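protien #1 (seq + structre)
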Amino acid sequence: MKLALVVPGGVDRSGEYRVIPALLALLERLSAHHEVHVFALHQEPAPGAWDLLGARVHNIGRGATRLRAIRAILAEHRCAPFCLLQAFFSGACGLVAVSAAHLLGIPSAVHVAGGEPVRLPDIRYGGRLTWRGRLQERVVLSAANVLTAASGPQLELIARLGAAARRVPLGVDCVQAWPARAPVRRGADETARLLHVASLNRVKDQPTLLRALAQLAQGPQVFHVDIVGEDTLGGEIQRLAAGLGLTDRLTFHGFMTQRQLLPLMRAAHVLVVSSRHEAGPVAVVEAAAVGVPTVGTAVGHAAEWAPDAAIAVPVGDAQSLAAALRLVLIDEELRLRLARAAWIRAVWEDADYTAGCFEALYEELTARPPRATPMAAVRR
């Protein structure tokens, strides 16, 4: 079937930088069996097109982006009809997808992949922060034929807005990109390696992470923390770390590609999440695939997998986060039990599983009777 996917970006020509790895894994699998066209709203400033992993990427670029994206979808539909439209992320992507699908009389699916259903005014984060955003989300959630999300907590947020969504986790490639590895016992005298993978920004809440680490440092545990992610806060987190006396215990790596991150992830003993909101994150799944458990705030997969395959603590609670980390570093058997349970989940719900879920969804949607379209002329 011919599929149209609408994304904000994450499909760079390089396949390594400015990408969403889980999205690339899905594209590669869908393109093996279907004709896939990706409409990227903001990958590059200027319009353009390129091939990536078997899919055709249409970059829309700046200036009346949503309207031009809809026009680009209609134009490609005239060449050969699309079977359905899939948006990854709600918001602008979802609005483009449901609008174009309505004009074409074909089904639409929206994967609510980020902060679309939340509102955190103190850090100016969330799709529902403004009245325009709330209206947009209402339109998208009501107009899509099917909504999906990666984790139970995200489904609950969507339900609070009066919509029903299905759980479709975004799995990782456990063969090539993230070769699955069962958990490995930590040596008795080995320094504990903690890993934090997230852009330095408000919603990831690195101040809570650092305050937890400062409390952990007051005990006998010997540890080092690798922090991987683009700095969007101009050195603020590094200065806070210095003020808390953590400089010698931390390494800030900045952005890393997946190939660069893999050995660091495999060397870690615990992944630490401090976010105020997550739909996933995929880093939890990546860590689990190589035998590393997660200790973090009760968001996304950390909340969903706890208590068997992760430890989750209240959002913003540095003391509880420090206590949970201390427990896992002291009790190696507990760490291994968490790691094994998480590993089983990651291997079972891998990228192939994700692609299979979406393909089954597409078969279901396209089997339904077609809707009447107000623009029958677009097929001519």
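ok now protien #2
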Amino acid sequence: MLTVDAAQKLILDHALTTGAERVSLMNSVGRVLAEEVHSRRDQPPWDNSAMDGYAVRCEDVKTASPQKPVSLKIVEEIPAGYLPKHTIKQGEAARIMTGAPLPEGADTIVPQEETSGDENQKCVNILSPGEKGNYIRTKGMDVASGSLLMSRGTTLRPSHIGILASMGKSLVTVYRRPKVAILATGNELADLDDVLSPEKILNSNSYAVAAQTLEAGAEPVLVGIAKDSPVDLKNKLVEALSALGEEGVVVSSGGVSVGKYDFVKEVYQQLGIEIKFWKVAMKPGSPLAFGISGRRLVFGLPGNPVSSMVTFELFVRPALRKIVGASPIYRPRVIATLTEAIKKAPEKSHFLRGWVEIRDHQYMVRTTGIQDSNVLSSMMAANALIILPEGQIEFRPGEKVEVHLLWQ
């Protein structure tokens, strides 16, 4: 039985990055850059004012105070969107608005609140001394022309979109999103719009996995539910593989254990899917299948809802992040202090649903309730997985544990 680390490495060895495509800026949110982006200009493109006020020479106002204001002649008004026409000389000032370019000769902005006088007057009274450079945003302060803004593998968030827009970049080169064909198995399952008879339960796995797929940056394709028969399962897996074309990922849930109605392994072999491993030394989610069919990756996840989600998080998600060209591909892990006592069996690594928070500048973590693999509510309440290594049985309050964050 493989360890979690060994299984992850084997999977990633077979996950190949997709090609690239050009998309519009507004369609690139959440996508992964397939190009380096360099700045086309300085941002801001010129020194400008950070406040509504007056552009002055620092030398002229160094003695200003409310008791002894300094009076300066107003030579122009500079709204945002206009270039200054005058050079500020001794005894002069320009009324300036936030974002407007700084006129030549000025080296300080005095905010409106630190002045007095009628708005229509030709002079302004400066009530406080300004230090050289006060309230001035310098040219290239945000981004310098020619600098590297974003590297390949960057996942584009709203802040990236803002920078790209400021560079005038309307098209972005990103990695293509792989398709993920999602299949649930089990006679007991009904779909959302089916009439629910007493012996049925609703298929939650496909929709949770589809949501995880979207969050990972891939495109889910729901194939439906396969009955617990080799023929129906084979037909559905053929449909799933066909939906992908030459590359992509198949994710099924259920049917991977050794029960009387668990046919996934048998059908994999019938379809020529090369099985790379069948079980992983972990809980929840030990019965986990991984195989390949050409350039397509095939995952058989456990049927219990939490087992399905946890194994997707630990094995399918990193593969998808590699396929879409993301860097890094794994979520962050931190060391946290356990706030409760926990006991476990020694044979496997355990991944418990947990809630991590910062208290007194350190991470603290607790479990989120019942840890049975059918209890989805404790998964919903979790923002992390508490990693308890194999070999150790007892964990005490105050002990340090590794935590896999789910929110980044």
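The CA atoms of residues 32 and 155 lie 4 Å apart.
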